[in-house]
Amino acid sequence: METVSEAPRPAGRTAIVVPGHGRRGRDGVYRISATCLGLVREAERIAELAPIEAVVFSGWSPVGGPTEAEQMRDAWQGPEVELVVEPTARVTAENAARTVPLLVARGIERAIVVCAPLHRYRTRFFFSRLYGAHGIETEVRVAQAAPSLRALLWEIGATSGLRRQLRAARAELQARRQ
């Protein structure tokens, strides 16, 4: 497991944040991916080793039915902590922006964001900027997962919208303050 930390400082109230990932099966049902389930398992390991206030799962469902966030919560087998569901985020920038108010409301000072290896760069890009602006220290933990060609191509394609999505996420957070 690789750890990428942003602005290390003494730990305060800590939460784990897990952005979702899923896909529609041949039966038309939207399910979290095996990689996403691996993120939940990594979050469980982290929660066993450190005092955690909450685990926040973030992700939607494009076809109705249980969202990525709900499916991750239902898959949780870790210690008893507050499990929080954010069921509307469709992209990484929204995962970050829409979990900020949930963390702030709980007095969270430090967030450990669990992601897949190829997703670490976008995760760090969005979460460190959006969380940092709200005084939340961000640490990105990369779970073990076999990178696929499909995931690599997705990440390459997603880089074209980074700045636009960051602006939209900042605007969303600003609108919530008003």
Question: Would you give an account of this structure?
Answer:
The structure is a single chain. This protein is of the alpha/beta class and 178 residues long. The protein contains six helices and eight strands, in the order ββββαβαβαβαβαα. It has helices spanning 34-49, 68-75, 92-105, 120-132, 149-158, 162-177; strands at 2-5, 14-19, 22-24, 30-32, 54-58, 82-86, 110-115, 137-142. A six-stranded mixed sheet has the order 1-8-7-2-5-6, sandwiched between helices. Strands 3-4 form a two-stranded antiparallel ribbon. β7 (110-115), α4 (120-132) and β8 form a beta-alpha-beta unit. α3 runs parallel beside α4 (120-132) and α3 (92-105) packs parallel to α6. It starts with a strand and ends with a helix. The model is unreliable at 1-10 (pLDDT under 50).
Short description:
The chain is α/β, with parallel strands linked by helices and 178 residues long.
Number of helices: 6
SS elements, strand count: 8
Structural class: alpha/beta
Q: Fraction of residues in helices?
A: 40-55%
| N-to-C span | 40 Å
Largest sheet: 6 strands, mixed
Indicate the mean pLDDT. Answer: 90
What is the topology, as strand order, of the major beta sheet? 1-8-7-2-5-6
**How much strand content do the residues show?**
15-25%
Low-confidence stretches: 1-10
The run of helices and strands is EEEEHEHEHEHEHH
What overall form do the CA principal axes indicate?
globular
Radius of gyration: 15 Å
